[in-house]
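User: Hi! I'm working on a homework problem where we have to compare a predicted structure to a textbook description. Could you give me the structure for the chain below?
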Amino acid sequence: MQIHLGSGLKKSMDNYLILKLVHILSAVVVTGTGAGIAFFMLMAYRSDNVQAIYVTAELVILGDWIFTTPAIVTLFTSGIMLMNVLSYSFESVWFRWVTACLYLLAPAGFQFFTFNTDLGTYRKLHWVMRVFHPSLRN
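Assistant: Happy to help. Predicted structure tokens:
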């Protein structure tokens, strides 16, 4: 038995599935890069090698810019688009909770973007070195 859908419904369902796939993949990238970056930073710290910590911190910043930032933007954008496609209310309780949590996390995101400039990268690396390596603390 075959069910024939109208072309509009099929196109709408295809768009939903593509959007859902993009949303899930961006969540996987955010989770994977976060865990990977944390792991390598921890391993560099445990090596007690100042040069290894410095190089790892540089690569962590680069990895954040190349992978994590686009994935976060894509995750947020695809989530909003999915809410529109599924006709979810932006006034619902769960969405208000998610929005409140994002506002609480906003200072961390702002710090990431302000530190990841040329001068900010130097400051961040200097801060990482002082935090992670006791011999560099004042």
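For your comparison, note the following. The chain is about 85% helix and 0% strand. The radius of gyration is 21 Å. Good luck with the assignment!
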